[in-house]
Amino acid sequence: MTALATPVAASAPQAGPTRRHLxxxxxxxxxxxxxxxALVAVLVLVLLALWGPLLDSSAAAWRDYNASCAPGSExxxxxxxxxIRYRDVYTYTTFTxxxxxxxxxxxxxxxxxxxxxxxxxxxxxxxxxxSPTRWLAVKLTxxxxxxxAGTSLLVLLHRLAWEASQGRVDTAKSWYDDPTLHANxxxxxxxxxxxxxxxxxxxxxxxxxxxxxxxxLGLAFGLYLLAGLALPHLWPTVSNVTxxxxxxxxxxIEVDSGLVTSSGAHIDDPGCGTTTTDGCAELYTxxxxxxxxxxxxxxxxxxxxxxxxxxxxxxxxxxxxxxxxVLLRRSTATSHGRREAAV
Amino acid sequence: xxxxxMAATALGKRFGRRWGxxxxxxxxxxxxxxxxxCTFRLPAGRVCAVVGPNGAGKSTLLAxxxxxxxxxxxxxxxxxxxxxxxxxxxxxxxxxxxxxxxxTVAETLLVGADLNPARWNAEAAExxxxxxxxxxxxxIRTLSGGxxxxxxxxxxxxxxxxLLLLDEPMADLxxxxxxxxxxxxxxxxxxxxxxxxxxxxxxxELEDSCDHLLLVGGGRVRLAGEIDDLLAAHARVSAxxxxxxxxxxxxxxxxxxxxxxxxxxxxxxxxxxxxxxxxPSLEELVLAYLRNPQAAPLTPxxxxxxxx
Lengths: 343, 308
Known about the structure:
The complex is a heterodimer of chains A (343) and B (308).
Chain A: H1 17-51, H2 53-68, H3 80-118, H4 121-128, H5 132-165, H6 178-183, H7 186-206, H8 209-230, E1 238-243, E2 253-261, E3 266-267, H9 280-287, E4 289-297, H10 302-331
Antiparallel strand pairs in A: 1-4, 2-3, 2-4
Chain B: E1 4-14, E2 33-43, E3 47-51, H1 58-65, E4 73-78, E5 90-93, H2 105-115, H3 122-130, H4 145-158, E6 163-167, H5 175-192, E7 195-200, H6 204-207, E8 212-217, E9 220-226, H7 227-232, E10 235-240, E11 250-257, E12 260-266, H8 282-291, H9 301-304
Parallel strand pairs in B: 3-7, 3-8, 5-6, 6-7
Antiparallel strand pairs in B: 1-2, 1-4, 8-9, 10-12, 11-12
Helix pairs in contact in B: 2-4, 3-4
Keywords (chain A): Membrane, Transmembrane, Transmembrane helix
Transmembrane segments (chain A): 33-54, 95-114, 135-157, 188-206, 213-235, 305-328
Protein name (chain B): ABC transporter ATP-binding protein
């Protein structure tokens, strides 16, 4: 064995292992990299248009509408197309940004991990010199950086475009509109990263391209629902009590609502309406109700809600990633002496 | 440095029914074991044939040695350490020759160089590939099975491994390419002292080039040792059935045709001359063991186990 020839120096210029592994990953997933770059670029351009010309023309149209289209006015003239164009582009762009985590999860489950395990090229990499741990670490780290960078940029632009529309476009979405909420803040970035981890776990679990794609999508959808359900409960609400004749009054995300009795207890709202409706006053007297209450999040809770939900999603992402590594290390041989560096 | 290229002690691998994951705590039910109670020792510098029918556990054994699977029980060591630590010094070519289909031949070799900067021999890789008239710009997905095998072998050999694990390496090759690549492998083994372990279910394919045998059947090692020793330890005999007493010998297989008894056995002592003992061929030996799963296995390493 000592006769083993001294290794011939590699013809490629010397580079550190990190650069070589980056080169390997890039070679394999160049189309995905280009597709991601193109998608981000297109969305950036659309968001810039939403922020600039599309918003300006829509705002001008609304100004004309409000100036000339008062009830009874004879010369109602405004650019309806500008309003519709802005609304459509905003809706589709926001929808696309909400869909990014699913796109990432499907790609991660199918192309990044599942396909490699199905056709054996993961084993090729493991026997060529990448340990399984390193293989997964490289495969997750590089996309995670690119996904985080891309979605952060998009979220920032979306937020700026949305902010600029407030007060200028009469039908601009409120901050608590669901798709807008998930395109306007860091939860979008956390969801995309969670999608990456969920896809990788799905790929390692199923080891087949198409089923892993579906499971990745399912897991990402579960996380999306979880985020939506958890978000209102991650920060204390504000309570607002109003008279029986006024009805509910709040602007934001409602968590709970109903009637307040004279003792201050909260009871269910029978759904009658305000006391101006016939018979409701009698009903409320019978129920001993003195007013309506609503527990909700006002706009001042925007950042606490975004940040706590982001933290929750990142914690889930870390857990899912850890599960993926444990799964991989359990099913392949790992060295006993030392723990391989994770990254 | 160790003179043992590969050794297994009570090695076993059980596959879960779904998802190919090992399930612990279910041992002993018999089902799901791809490999069981596998003990052997392969000295360094040998060319070892792993022989057995399809589904015998050959691929599982090689994947365990390559560190691609974690054993369910027992352990396997390669080059004196655990398979994960030996990754850089072990070459492996899987049965289906997986390669990245979207890359070209040249890019595939660059991947090999990137993942093995310390040991990569680009010249050797290019030599093997160009001997097959392969266009370096051809995409892997356009290659024939034999061409893929050539690229996969080039990747494994350019890594300059001390131990080369090949799972059914020649199955896709035409006779000419088979001869040429086998020659390349053998010269590699001779030049660098590389230990080569290759599996096949075609015994004739390996008889000329291998000096060590590992016969796997039903997930267990049935025969292990130097081929010459194994052949010398067995005899084919034929005698009159009423006169022959096979009792003291270990009978692998016996058959009675009329009054004539023919048998393949491991003599416990000198055989009577009128039994006309002859040395079996490797194929006869392998087939006799495969046809008779109840025959006692012969694995010299079993007794040396404590010394490993």
